[in-house]
Amino acid sequence: MTPYELLWQPFADFAFMRHALVGCLALALGCAPIGLFLVLRRMSLVGDAMSHAILPGAAIAFIVYGLSLTAMSIGGLIAGLVVVLAAGLVTRATRLKEDASFAAFYLVSLASGVLLVSKWGSNVDLMHILFGTVLAVDDTALAFLAMVASATLLVLAGIYRALVVESFDPEFLQSMGGRGAWAHFAFLILVVLNLVAGFQALGTLMAVGLMMLPAASARLWAKELPALLGIALLIALLAAYVGLLLSYHADLPSGPCIILTAGIAYFISLAAGTRGGMLRSWLGRAHLEA
Amino acid sequence: MSHAHHHAHDQHGHHGHSHVPATDAAIRLDNLTLTYHRHPVVHHVSGHFLAGEATAIVGPNGAGKSTLLKALVGLLKPNHGQLDLGGLKPRDIAYLPQQAAITRDFPLSVQDAVLLGAWRGAGWFGRISRGLRQQAQDALARVGLAGLGERPLDELSAGQFQRVLFARLLLQDARVILLDEPFTALDAKTTADLLAVVAGWRAEGRTVIAVLHDYEQVRSHFPQTLLLAKECIAWGPTTEVLTPARLARANGVAVSWDDDAPVCHRDSLPPPADTPHDHALHDH
Amino acid sequence: MKLPLWLTGSLACLALAAPAADKLPVVASFSILGDLVSQVGGDKVEVRTLVGPDGDAHVYQPSPRDGKTLAGARLLVTNGLGFEGWMERLITASRYRGARVVASDKIQAEQMAEDEGHEHGHGHDHGKLDPHAWQDPARVQQYVANIADGLAAADPANATYYRQRAVQYRQTLQQLDSWAQQQFASVPSAKRRVITSHDAFGYLGRHFGITFLAPQGMNTEAEASAKAVGQLIQQAKREGIRAIFVENISNPRLLEQISRETGAKPGGRLYSDALSRPDGPAASYEAMMRYNIATLVAGMKQN
Q1: What one-character DSSP code corresponds to residue A221?
Q2: Helix/strand/coil (H, E, C) string of C229-273?
Q3: Per residue in B164-199, pLDDT tens?
Q4: N or C: which end of chain A has fewer CB within 10 A?
């Protein structure tokens, strides 16, 4: 097999492969920075929990509008926003930490959703319908992802400094009257937006996986925030590209393939990462001095 | 109704210092009461912090010292009484809390952390000018971290980290600096270097108010002291406040304090002006 | 589950009238079986279905109400062949000790085929039996026979009635089969190729000589591989297959993507594992088969 056949031909031959790659690119652009901040703020499990938290919104939309993907996505978005913002408010107002508040709210949300579906829904697996698959990214989904990515990058550029300070030393920001709360909530809204867009276009595994794995891996290669962002993005894109090729040549399911590729990247980072990888400490090398 | 606690009672109405004209007082407290979860933590404290002076706040644990600092910087609203900042604006006050909420391993460089001190000027979007960067370098030099600007925060020792926070304070360029237990668990060298920075602030005419536990540090660098055990036990020159008798009284008050007593209101007994140390025994 | 109004009314009357022996309470695992049981049992049975119209029995999760329903039944009719993975647990939980009919008993079951022109991967374990035997009207004859036997054993008083109705319905099935053969005969065998979302039509394909291609395997849970999708598209383009159908229980997206890329228009929905709601085109087994076959033929003619 020629390098061309190995590395590019599947994309040349099939529109669905190209769409999948571009879809992953769009998702990664928004998700990589979001994922990185989630990791830094110790909110790493929010992503997966969110896929459950959006259930009541999708269920209500289904009950009212039937099997309309748009309605269910919007419903899911609203439910996710409610959960995330309520948890954020509780964290700021009480002594409870972010993870406990979020756990509480998403569980309540999930239970409400299951109840709604049991009572008024149908036997159809709602989430099965709502969650997309990476091989079925159509133009609408691409446009949606691109919009979300652009919005994310714009907003992040705006709140970047405030978010960094708020993540590093919130009391400092508070004493300076810096209104860190706004940055915090804007960030949470971006989280929900990216996740729901990701779920709808590519499925939960893909969305959460592309968000969290590259971010977790990046920490083992760099120490400065800009470098971390770049590395996370790079890993996400590589995982998508390699994963899709693997799925094609080895005849494996695509979504899991991409995420497992990202997982392998993570293990490689763990072992060989230049900042904190295990091999370095085992081999007894000193850290680079300034 | 029985008393819920003892008062520190100074029979002679002895004032810790002579009457001070208002213009020299940076911050005035007037019968200030602060509560935390509905328990009075700072109790009817009156007095003033002298401008340009270094005042230490000492007292037993749980005496309300940190709470008082929080009120000074505006993070807590007074439950009762008055807090007069004498025209000081928020940008004039810098505050270094005890460090519970800081994420130490956040991927910032030392210089970035120091530059946060310029937040008031730069805000969410302002450019960091070369002049500011130079200021940051100078601040790092002053705290003994010259040349470590590019080092990531999580590679610093506790002492180095505290120096970075002081450098940040330097950049804030505030007239009043509040420090909450800034030298706890630091090595001697770092403490000495940072105390020198405090001395530098005094020389520049800035007001420094610090919560401290180490009386040697207080005696050597802080001419004024407020001895607080929820109530003001004594407030004045350090030599007169830090006496064994007063310290014992402070401990006594702390030990016998009943937290579950209802909050008391002393509306019936207006405090005498400028005599913050008279606490008459009274009924609740 | 949506019971037709007349049945609900009968049940209400039944609830009011004390003796329980009036109608035989039967539980069917999913809507297709439910219809078959109703056809044979007539008004001597009261059928409750667990997985209702448009429901996906592959991923169904029984509720406490299902347990209660089952506990009150005297006969349970299941498909077997591994279709209802959740049934054993439900039986244990509800402590059901009544009679059971496995509708696919004595049926020559087929495996998920690799030959028969399925040249793509399935993503599942080979050696697994294909449970969708109801798609073959000839095999449903045996289904009906098994059901009739079961009903007669559980309710001997009405045995003759059941057997009569079974005979009648089997005639209907025979007519259905002939009609279907006619319909498919109008499509040349080279054109009898169809793309659907999952391999539920193996038996139908074998019986009528149609090739069904799918990017996923038997299970709606399974994910497709890029290679499988790619091969499917290439084959569709190469052989000019334009008949592409989405099933009523699966996510249409992947199929729509394939349609777009092959330039075909999706041919409509097929009912594979469940009936439609009563106001839909596939409210009974016979209606479902007629609808599916008509849709298939129309689609294949475009190939």
Answers
A1: T
A2: HHHHHHHHHHHCCCCEEEECCCCCHHHHHHHHHHCCCEEEEECCC
A3: 999 999 999 999 999 999 998 899 999 999 999 999
A4: N
| Nearest residue, CB atoms, A125 vs list C56, C254, C261 | C56
Q: Residue A143 belongs to a domain with what CATH number?
A: 1.10.3470.10
- Average predicted confidence (pLDDT) for chain B: 79
> Strand locations in B161-206, DSSP E?
176-180
Mean pLDDT of C64-77: 91
Instruction: Give residue C12's identity as a one-letter amino acid code.
Output: A
Is residue B199 packed enough to be buried (19+ CB in 10 Å), middle (13-18) or exposed (0-12)?
Answer: middle
* pLDDT tens sequence across A227-239: 999 999 999 999 9
- Chain C positions touching A138 (Cβ under 8 A) are 253, 256-257, 260
The Cα–Cα gap between A200 and A191 comes to: 14
| A40, A164, A175 ranked by CB distance to B73: nearest | A175
Read off the pLDDT band of C152 (50, 70, 90).
very high
Helices (H), chain A: 3-7, 9-13, 15-40, 46-53, 55-65, 69-93, 98-120, 126-130, 139-168, 170-175, 180-202, 204-218, 225-249, 254-272, 278-282
CB B73 within 8 A of CB B261: no
Contacts with C223 from chain A: Cβ below 8 Å: 133, 253-256
Neighbours of A97 (CB within 10 A): 11
The answer to whether A159 faces chain B, any CB pair under 8 Å, is yes
- Which site among A8, A123, A138 would you substitute to test the C interface, given the most C Cβ atoms closer than 10 Å to its Cβ? A123
Among B75, B102, B148, beta carbon nearest to A290: B148
What are the distances in angstroms from CA B33 to CA A96, B46, B231, B280?
A: 27, 9, 9, 17
Tell me which residue in A162, A164, A290 faces B150 most closely, judged by beta carbons. Answer: A290
Q: Chain B closest CA to A252's CA: distance in Å?
A: 38
CA A27 to CA A142: how far, in whole Å? 9
What range does the domain containing A106 cover? 3-289
Chain A CB contacts of C31 below 8 Å: none
Instruction: Report pLDDT for A177.
Output: 76
CA distance B23 to B274: 14
pLDDT tens profile B42-69: 888 888 888 888 999 998 887 788 888 8
Does the beta-carbon distance from B101 to A178 stay under 8 Å? no
Indicate if ipTM > 0.85.
Answer: no
**Domain tally for chain A?**
1
Pairing of strands C211-213, C244-247: unpaired
| pLDDT at residue C11, as a whole number | 64
Tens of pLDDT, residue by residue over A27-69, are: 999 999 999 999 998 888 888 888 888 888 888 888 888 777 7
Q: Report pLDDT for B197.
A: 95
Q: Residue C118 carries which side chain, given as an amino acid letter?
A: H
| Chain C contact for A122 (CB, 8 A cutoff) | yes
B108, closest residue in chain A (CA to CA):
A224
